[in-house]
């Protein structure tokens, strides 16, 4: 099997990525929030300048798909008017900050103060060398909501004290408040750059750097153990709001408008491909909806599927129509991954059943990842359902 191409960088607004359906333009909502007006404006922009598809990413960002070369410049103008565009393209590329969507509801909340300080500090030219996938996680609650979310520098809590922890270390250094936590995070980022964490190709991750035997200096090491991980959130009513999932992590403009129409002052974009709508809302408003899911038992929530062909040039198979068909055959405890290629973008980890596209057909992997050895090869797309009872 030929290896898929690994891009090694993430698209942005100023620096989009070419895909099979046009340019992919990533929008990073400040502090992970969209106002209702911003959400409606983004939906209008997706219609006007793209193909209408909006991806939710595992970094709590949104991606507009199918943007044309001619439409990119006016899209940037629209994003700037909405307050969703950094004026500095370089700074935009390194503003990879994921915050706990259940916290930070006011400007004086410690989490908001930390995220705001990181946003401002990352504009400094000294951090221009950070890899595009290098990220910060701000997760300061009594239980870590973002324990499974990728991040290189983690600002968390140990009981009721803030700590700063390098990904790959089990403990972190205690910080004396939000401002000190941000300062320690910047010290870690400086050390990562200075100690050779960034490779010749511009890539690099903290945990991998540490695993190679590069030890942290004593001033950045602490003994504080972060709070325990929270139970992974499920769609439906949650304390403080309603979590709404998107099938396969993708919205249409009307879906985003429907979320804005619930009337909340902000929509909180999460790294779980769900949107948190603060306030009291009846989940039944989306009963039977094809895309917006609030029933935690919906089998589509146990299916991961990438964009697939023809939108992704590395995929040779359609993925999501097939995934919808196969979802109805899943047993309640099974999870399915339909991947257009061996890269496994939608779920780069082990899954009960994984279908991997290869030269217009599918290979089947059981209890493995897309790059593992398959138990069946060359399944025709029309016959895959036969193996699921279809």
Write a concise synopsis of the structure shown.
The chain is of the alpha+beta class and 390 residues long. The chain contains eight helices and 21 strands. It is 22% helix and 23% strand.
Question: Features of this protein?
Answer:
390 residues, alpha+beta, 22% helix, globular, six-stranded antiparallel β-sheet, 21 strands, 23% strand
Description of the molecule:
The chain has about 400 residues and is of the alpha+beta class. Helix 1 runs antiparallel to helix 2 (about 70-80). The model is unreliable at about 1-5 (pLDDT under 50). The protein contains 8 helices and 21 strands. The relative contact order is 0.11.
Secondary structure layout:
Elements: E1 17-19, E2 22-27, E3 33-35, H1 36-49, E4 54-56, E5 62-67, H2 69-81, H3 89-94, E6 97-99, H4 110-121, E7 136-139, E8 153-158, E9 161-166, E10 173-174, H5 178-194, H6 206-211, E11 236-238, E12 241-246, E13 250-251, H7 253-260, E14 266-269, E15 274-278, E16 292-293, E17 303-305, H8 320-327, E18 336-339, E19 351-358, E20 361-368, E21 376-379
Parallel strand pairs: 6-7, 7-8, 17-18, 18-19
Antiparallel strand pairs: 1-2, 2-5, 3-14, 4-5, 4-13, 8-9, 9-10, 11-12, 12-15, 12-16, 14-15, 19-20, 20-21
Helix pairs in contact: 1-2, 1-7, 4-5
């Amino acid at each position: 099997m030929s290896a898929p191409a690994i891009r090694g960088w993430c698209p942005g607004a100023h620096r989009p990525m070419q895909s099979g359906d046009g340019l992919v333009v990533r929008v990073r909502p400040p502090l992970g929030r969209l106002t209702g007006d911003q959400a409606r404006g983004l939906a209008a922009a997706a219609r006007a300048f793209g193909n209408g598809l909006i991806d939710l990413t595992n970094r709590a960002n949104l991606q507009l798909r199918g943007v044309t070369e001619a439409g990119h410049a006016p899209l940037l103008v629209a994003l700037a008017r909405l307050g969703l565009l950094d004026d500095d393209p370089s700074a935009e590329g390194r503003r990879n900050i994921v915050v706990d969507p259940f916290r930070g509801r006011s400007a004086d909340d410690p989490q908001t103060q930390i995220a705001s300080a990181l946003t401002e500090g990352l504009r400094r030219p000294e951090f221009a060398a950070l890899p595009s996938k290098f990220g910060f996680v701000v997760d300061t609650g009594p239980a870590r909501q973002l324990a499974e979310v990728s991040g290189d520098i983690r600002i968390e809590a140990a009981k009721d004290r803030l700590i700063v922890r390098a990904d790959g270390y089990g403990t972190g250094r205690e910080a004396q408040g939000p401002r000190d936590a941000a300062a320690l995070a910047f010290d870690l980022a400086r050390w990562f750059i200075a100690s050779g964490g960034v490779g010749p190709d511009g890539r690099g991750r903290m945990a991998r750097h540490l695993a190679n035997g590069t030890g942290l200096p004593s001033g950045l090491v602490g003994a504080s153990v972060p709070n325990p991980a929270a139970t992974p959130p499920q769609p439906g009513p949650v304390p403080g709001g309603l979590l709404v999932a998107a099938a396969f992590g993708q919205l249409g403009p009307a879906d985003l408008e429907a979320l804005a129409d619930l009337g909340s002052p902000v929509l909180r974009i999460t790294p779980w491909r769900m949107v948190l709508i603060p306030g009291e809302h009846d989940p039944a408003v989306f009963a039977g909806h094809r895309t917006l899911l609030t029933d935690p038992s919906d089998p589509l929530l146990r299916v991961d599927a990438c964009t697939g062909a023809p939108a992704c040039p590395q995929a040779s198979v359609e993925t999501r129509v097939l995934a919808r068909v196969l979802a109805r055959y899943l047993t309640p405890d099974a999870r399915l991954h339909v991947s257009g290629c061996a890269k496994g973008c939608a779920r780069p980890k082990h899954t009960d059943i994984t279908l991997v596209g290869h030269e217009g057909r599918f290979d089947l992997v059981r209890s493995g990842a897309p790059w593992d050895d398959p138990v069946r090869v060359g399944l025709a797309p029309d016959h895959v359902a036969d193996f699921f009872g279809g």
